[in-house]
């Protein structure tokens, strides 16, 4: 076998609360997130020197490289393909890591199950400050209300699969700059506790309400700062739609499509997709 291929869905988060566990596996987040109908395909092959490419361009992805080194001490070439942009709140760091690990596992016949692969990916996300709960969401798939942090975790599945979400991408927001700020994280957690408490008491929860709860969260926690993101959210609400900010990215997530300036708009849908079986070549 010369190469192996695997797929992981992308994901978005609406609300998160960081939880420090007794170890890296129990560290993570509570909150709400879902997988999407788009994601990352990883094609891994043996090589003389380790190299990571995203859409055929060399890229530095420390989370991917760290995780793969934990699985195999051998140089590999990782080709990642995605139609979604990196660093914009689509969980591509987690998806790239999961897909790469599963392909490596298959290519070298390591025999690891998906839970073990997810554990390695999750630990790498925590160590590199690139995510808290995306790995878990992508491993399970669907629209999840996460009740416990880490891998594995407890959750409630909400039945919103198939509903469309429109993402207007305005720019990146580096996750480590947020997750590495202790004081800001404390504020985020306080607001998240308040909003999640309201959600847990809501007996008529809808996707539209989750957008509204999420907007309240990003506004009060200080995550929503970009002027264009703020302006578009206001316009969407005035038009009768519901919108929030992607976590973490300068991206507007909305229930209706609305062009704003020259920013690209991605039509996405909530899926039940999860980490996929490999192909070999």
Under CATH, the topology is which?
A: Ribosomal Protein S5, domain 2
Low-confidence spans: none
Q: Mean pLDDT score, rounded?
A: 94
Output the number of helix runs: 8
State the secondary-structure class: alpha+beta
**Any idea what the CATH architecture is?**
2-Layer Sandwich
Overall number of strands: 12
Description:
With 281 residues, the protein is an alpha+beta fold. It has eight helices and twelve strands. It has a single domain, classed as Ribosomal Protein S5, domain 2, CATH 3.30.230.120. Strands 1, 2, 3, 4, 5, 6, 7, 8, 9, 10, 11 and 12 form a twelve-stranded mixed beta sheet that branches. Strand 9 and strand 10 form a beta hairpin. Helix 1 packs across helix 3. The protein is globular and about 55 Å long. The termini are close together.
Draw up the topology in text.
Layout: E1 3-19, E2 28-46, E3 51-54, E4 57-58, H1 62-71, E5 76-81, H2 92-107, H3 114-128, H4 134-140, E6 143-146, E7 155-158, E8 164-171, H5 175-179, H6 182-201, H7 207-220, H8 227-238, E9 243-245, E10 250-254, E11 265-271, E12 279-280
Parallel strand pairs: 3-5
Antiparallel strand pairs: 1-2, 1-12, 2-5, 2-6, 2-11, 3-4, 6-7, 8-10, 8-11, 9-10
């Amino acid at each position: 076998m010369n190469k192996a291929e695997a797929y992981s869905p992308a994901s978005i988060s609406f609300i998160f609360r960081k939880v420090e566990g007794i170890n890296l596996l129990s560290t993570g987040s509570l909150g709400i997130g879902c997988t999407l109908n788009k994601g990352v395909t990883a094609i891994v092959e043996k090589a003389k020197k380790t190299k990571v490419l995203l859409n055929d361009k060399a890229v530095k992805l420390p989370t991917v490289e760290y995780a793969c080194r934990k699985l195999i001490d051998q140089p590999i070439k990782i080709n990642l393909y995605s139609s979604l942009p990196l660093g914009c709140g689509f969980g591509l760091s987690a998806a790239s890591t999961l897909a790469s690990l599963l392909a490596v596992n298959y290519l070298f016949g390591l025999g690891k199950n998906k839970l073990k692969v997810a554990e390695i990916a999750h630990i790498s996300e925590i160590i590199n400050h690139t995510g808290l709960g995306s790995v878990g969401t992508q491993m399970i798939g669907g629209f999840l209300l996460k009740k416990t942090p880490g891998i594995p975790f407890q959750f409630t599945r909400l039945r919103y699969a198939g509903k469309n979400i429109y993402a207007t991408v305005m720019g990146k927001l580096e996750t480590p700059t947020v997750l590495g700020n202790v004081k800001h994280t404390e504020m985020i957690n306080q607001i998240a506790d308040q909003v999640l408490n309201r959600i847990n008491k809501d007996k008529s929860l809808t996707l539209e309400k989750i957008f509204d709860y999420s907007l309240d969260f990003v506004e009060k926690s200080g995550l929503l700062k970009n002027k264009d993101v703020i302006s578009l959210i206001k316009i969407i609400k005035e038009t009768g739609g519901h919108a929030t900010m992607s976590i973490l990215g300068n991206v507007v997530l909305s229930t209706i499509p609305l062009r704003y300036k020259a920013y690209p708009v991605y039509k996405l849908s909530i899926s039940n997709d999860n980490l996929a079986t490999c192909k070999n070549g």
